[in-house]
Amino acid sequence: MDGKKAWSVAEAVDHKGFPADKTKTGGWIPAALILVIEISERLSTMGIAVNLVTYLGGTMHVSSSESANIVTDFMGTSFLLCLLGGFLADSFLGRYLTIAIFAIIQALGTGMLAVSTRLPQLRPPPCGRGAASNKCEPASGMQMGILYMCLYLIALGTGGLKSSVSGFGTDQFDEKDEKEKSQMDYFFNRFFFLISTGTLLAVTVLVYIQDEVGRSWAYGICCISMVIAILLFLSGTKKYRYKRSSGSPVVHILQVIAAAIRKRDLMYPSNISFLYEDSPEITSRIPHTDQFRFLDKAAIMAEGDNEVDVSNNGVSRPNRWKLSSVTRVEEVKMVIRLLPVWATTILFWTIYAQMITFSVEQASTMERSIGGFQIPAGSLTVFFVGAILITLALYDRLIMPLCKKYWNGRPGFTNLERIGIGLVMSVLGMAVAAVVEVKRLAVARQIGEVATHRGATLPISVFLLIPQFFLVGAGEAFIYTGQLDFFITRSPKGMKTMSTGLFLTTLSFGFFFSSFLVSIVKSITGGANGQGWLADNINYGRLDCFYGLLSALSVVNCAAYLLCAAWSKPKTTIAEQQQQMENMAKTSMDDNIDKC
């Protein structure tokens, strides 16, 4: 038995369904093959998103506010569909098949987008010249409909695979093996570092190809890269470790809630030991907590809780919709504890949305030449991605070693601390953005009539935008890794894919809130001429006021986050809980020996 434990991985199997041999499966090589899919996904999604606003305005002749909303809705839908991917992975397909299927869907979507941007009949004619330069025929409903179809097919592929990639990557490491556990400690940072490298390629090479060679060529490269990534991913099939599904976590949550509501009128037992528990091993149970006591009623045993299992020789078993174990109830409580932090991180991604929409549009109006080279407006986000890579490298190579050496062996900032740092940086980023926009608008007023022409370049350097890109980018490095760590480590074992999808919905709701806020601000400040803060031509708007509003909202959000983080901080760590359970098991054994 001890020999089997030495070579096998608990709760993991190989591609044939046998216990996974740790000498032949898992580790960094299979994890790297999984990360290739994520790098290619980032290349495609970000390569499209960061420069889409210029395509919508310059080619499809859509207004600036509507272009921003189209981009944020596309990104929001991509991350919202992570819940669908997580549900399918946990309930039916498993993480491996989910990644493979939805990666193929995304490759199909980028291929269709490459074709649609190539055909002239799928875009309106160019704007007039000279005196008629402001007369542009907007895209037709059919043209926009085909564009939407391509974008949302890509969104479906992105959402489906994204929720499973990080979870399947962590499946390749055994938490009970000290060597592999230490490797997994670095996985989240390296995971984000590598996908940020994909983003860096997207905002530099891919955006340049879009502007200078052609969008269809750039999107064709995205399609080909995803096909190659799928082949590499499939090549590791025999090397992966697979975790058996324990059923849909959504169904488990609904069962606990339904049972608690059904038994809402029952009295609590005098001792928690009377609550129902069916976990065979004490160490696999989750200790009872006093929070959300109304859910404990789901574990109160009552008449009629059992049903006959016809498929198992008529043996009586509990009906999960009427009776839940203490462990299942505690799993639901763990998910509920994630929600306050979930809610207070949404606004960061609203600020992030401005970096790939209005900030890119700002860049398109500013002087971008270096010698004879014209920097594409979308490529300004290279400073954003550069900030992420620099921050992650410094954190991995400098901050973590210093913390281990001088901070009682701590491996760096906790996940909640990293999230807090990211939120503070986003506040500073929006404040700086507002100040820079004041200066840009002052230049636009000075040159007057010239600023009204679409594509006019103001005599102000685009490099003034670097601080806002850098602050929000560094903030993303902290908040993304902090959120990913928080949602995976604080969730029950059987709900890690769902919790990853829950984390990614903060990005989704952040983008959707951006669209909502843009629509509300445009409606309130538009006035009779329909301009206001978010005018069709940003040179005649007040984008600085919009950035100031976001900065103020972020200050309030930071205060709310501090309260939520203090509330959600666990009284005991998972390791301490496990130790408690082991002590309970030992005490129970000693009592039995004494009785004998």
TrEMBL record:
<feature type="transmembrane region" description="Helical">
    <location>
        <begin position="501"/>
        <end position="526"/>
    </location>
</feature>
<feature type="transmembrane region" description="Helical">
    <location>
        <begin position="373"/>
        <end position="395"/>
    </location>
</feature>
<feature type="transmembrane region" description="Helical">
    <location>
        <begin position="456"/>
        <end position="480"/>
    </location>
</feature>
<feature type="transmembrane region" description="Helical">
    <location>
        <begin position="546"/>
        <end position="567"/>
    </location>
</feature>
<feature type="transmembrane region" description="Helical">
    <location>
        <begin position="334"/>
        <end position="353"/>
    </location>
</feature>
<keyword id="KW-0812">Transmembrane</keyword>
<feature type="transmembrane region" description="Helical">
    <location>
        <begin position="96"/>
        <end position="115"/>
    </location>
</feature>
<dbReference type="GO" id="GO:0016020">
    <property type="term" value="C:membrane"/>
</dbReference>
<dbReference type="GO" id="GO:0022857">
    <property type="term" value="F:transmembrane transporter activity"/>
</dbReference>
<dbReference type="Pfam" id="PF00854">
    <property type="entry name" value="PTR2"/>
</dbReference>
<comment type="similarity">
    <text>Belongs to the major facilitator superfamily. Proton-dependent oligopeptide transporter (POT/PTR) (TC 2.A.17) family.</text>
</comment>
<feature type="transmembrane region" description="Helical">
    <location>
        <begin position="146"/>
        <end position="170"/>
    </location>
</feature>
<feature type="transmembrane region" description="Helical">
    <location>
        <begin position="191"/>
        <end position="210"/>
    </location>
</feature>
<feature type="transmembrane region" description="Helical">
    <location>
        <begin position="216"/>
        <end position="234"/>
    </location>
</feature>
<dbReference type="GO" id="GO:0006857">
    <property type="term" value="P:oligopeptide transport"/>
</dbReference>
<feature type="transmembrane region" description="Helical">
    <location>
        <begin position="416"/>
        <end position="436"/>
    </location>
</feature>
<keyword id="KW-1133">Transmembrane helix</keyword>
<dbReference type="InterPro" id="IPR000109">
    <property type="entry name" value="POT_fam"/>
</dbReference>
<dbReference type="InterPro" id="IPR036259">
    <property type="entry name" value="MFS_trans_sf"/>
</dbReference>
<protein>
    <submittedName>
        <fullName>Uncharacterized protein</fullName>
    </submittedName>
</protein>
<feature type="transmembrane region" description="Helical">
    <location>
        <begin position="70"/>
        <end position="89"/>
    </location>
</feature>
<keyword id="KW-0472">Membrane</keyword>
<dbReference type="InterPro" id="IPR018456">
    <property type="entry name" value="PTR2_symporter_CS"/>
</dbReference>
